[in-house]
Write a structure and sequence with these properties.
The protein has 7 helices and 5 strands, in the order H-H-H-H-E-E-H-E-E-E-H-H. It folds into 2 domains: 4-43, no CATH class; 51-158, Rossmann fold. It is mainly alpha-helical. The strands form 2 sheets. The protein has a 3-stranded parallel β-sheet with strand order 1-3-5, sandwiched between helices. A two-stranded parallel ribbon has the order 2-4. The chain is 47% helix and 11% strand.
C-alpha cells in the first residue's frame, strides 16, 4: 500500500480544519504527522502532555534519582527517535539536572542511537550476539541479567 497519497490527504484535511478554526495546531508537538490522533484531540479542545512527565511526577521519580549514584534506564528498542519524548531520555534529563550519571540499557540499539550520547554516558543492547526478536524476547530475563551484571562490574571499578 502506498501511504504517500494518504499522508498528503490527511495533511490537506488538517490544513482545511485549521483554516476553519482560524488557528495553526498541526505543528504542535504531539499532534502527529499530517494530523494524527493528537491533532484530532487538539481540535476537540484537548491538551497534549508528556506521559513520561506525568508518571515521573506521580511517583516522585526525582526524589529517588537525587539519592542515587547512577541511573540505568531503557526501553525495548532505542534509536534516534528515543530523544523525542520517550521515557529513557526524560529520566536522563532528570538525572542530569541532579548531576547523576545515566546509562541506557535496551533490548536493541537501532539507527541513529549514537545521538543518545547527548543524554547517556553509554548505550547498551542486551543482545549477546545475532538472534531474532523472538529469541531475544524468550531469553530477555537472562540477557538483561547478564548485561546488568556487566554494567555493574564496570560501575564498581569506576567507583573504587
Amino acid at each position: 500500500m502506498d501511504l504517500e497519497p494518504l499522508d498528503k490527504g490527511l495533511g490537506h484535511y488538517a490544513s482545511l480544519i485549521e483554516t476553519v478554526m482560524g488557528k495553526s495546531i498541526k505543528k504542535t508537538p504531539g499532534a502527529g504527522a499530517a494530523g494524527g490522533l493528537g491533532f484530532g484531540l487538539l481540535v476537540l479542545g484537548g491538551q497534549i502532555q508528556s506521559g513520561a512527565k506525568i508518571v515521573s511526577e506521580a511517583i516522585n521519580l526525582e526524589k529517588y534519582i537525587q539519592v542515587s549514584d547512577w541511573v540505568i534506564t531503557g526501553e525495548g528498542k532505542s534509536d534516534f527517535q528515543s530523544a523525542f519524548g520517550k521515557v529513557p531520555v526524560h529520566v536522563a534529563k532528570i538525572a542530569r539536572k541532579n548531576n547523576i550519571h545515566t546509562i541506557l540499557l535496551s533490548g536493541s540499539l537501532g539507527k541513529g542511537y549514537q545521538e543518545l550520547y547527548e543524554y547517556f554516558i553509554s548505550c547498551h543492547s542486551i543482545s549477546s550476539g545475532p538472534m531474532s526478536l523472538e529469541q531475544s524476547m524468550q531469553n530477555a530475563a537472562q540477557l538483561l541479567n547478564d548485561s546488568s551484571r556487566n554494567i555493574a562490574r564496570l560501575i564498581r571499578m569506576i567507583n573504587r
